[in-house]
Amino acid sequence: MKQHYMVSEEQEDLRIDRYLSEACEELSRSYVQKLLKNQDVLVNGGPVKASYKVAAGDQIEVDVPEAVEPEIVAEEMNLEILYEDQDVILVNKPKGMVVHPAAGHYTGTLVNGLMAHCRDELSGINGVMRPGIVHRIDMDTTGVLIVCKNDFAHNSIAAQLKEHSITRKYRAIVYGVIKEDEGTVDAPIGRHPVDRKKMSINEKNGRRAVTHYRVLKRFSKYTYIECQLETGRTHQIRVHMASIHHPLVGDTVYGPEKSPFHLQGQTLHAGVLGFIHPRTGEYMEFTAPLPQYFTELLQKLENM
Length: 304
Known about the structure:
Elements: E1 2-6, H1 16-23, H2 29-37, E2 41-43, E3 46-47, E4 59-63, E5 81-84, E6 88-93, H3 110-118, E7 142-148, H4 151-162, E8 167-175, E9 182-186, E10 189-191, E11 199-201, E12 210-218, E13 222-229, H5 236-243, E14 268-276, E15 283-287, H6 292-302
Parallel strand pairs: 7-14
Antiparallel strand pairs: 1-4, 2-3, 2-4, 5-6, 6-7, 8-13, 8-14, 9-12, 10-11, 12-13, 14-15
C-alpha cells in the first residue's frame, strides 16, 4: 500500500524517520527505519537513509507492505476462571501475561489460553487477533477481566463500557502519602507528544478520562488506595496518579526509573468488575483476590 506525503516549511530539517513516524501514527520510528533500509521509502523518486533531513516541498512515497496476520495457536494453560456460562467468562489474569497477541507476543497470551479452553466459542467482533476481547488490562496489571463468547454478549458489554456503567475497581500502592481521604482526577488522556509508547495528560488531543480514588491505608512513604474507573483509557490510573505526583510503586514508565522493592511492573490489581449480564439482565459482580506479591508488599510496608 503506497502512501504519499509532501513536506511543509514547518516540518523542514526533521530527520525523515521522525517525520514519517509523526505524519503517520500507525508507523513506529523503528518500523520506518526498517522501511528505509529496505528502500521502501522514496524521496523525490530516490531512496534515502534514516538520517536524511527533509526539505520543504519534498515528495515522499512510502510503500507499506500488506500486514500478514499470523495464525494464533491455542495453548493449554492453567487459567484461573472466576465465572463462566454460555455468554461470558471471567478470568483472574496473572502478572506478566499479555491479554492478546501483538507484535512480539504471539504466544503465551490470555487469548492463546482461552482458545484452548473455549475452542470456537469466542466472539469475533475484534478479529482473529483478539477473539472474545472487549477490554484489556496491561501486561503487569493483575485481576479480573471479562471475555465474551459470542457477538451478542460482546455488543452488550461493549455498550456498557461505552456508557461507563460497568463497575471497575482497582487496588494500587502509590508513592507518597495522600493527605485527602478521597479525590477525583478528571483530565484527558492521549498519546504522549514525544514518546509514542507512553500516554499523557493531553488537553489538545486527549479523550476525557475520569478516575476516582480513595485512601485505604497510609504508610510512612506510600499509600494504599482503591481507584474506580469512570472511563477506561489506556494506562489511565497510571497516568492520572502520576499527574498528581503519586505514581504507582513499581511503575518505571510513569514513575521513578528504579523500583524500590524489585517489583515486576506497577502495583495495580483489577479487584472488582460488575456488569449487567447480557442475557439475564441481572447485575453481577466478581472479585479477584490480591496476588501474593501485593499482599507481601503491604505486609512489608506495615512493618517498615
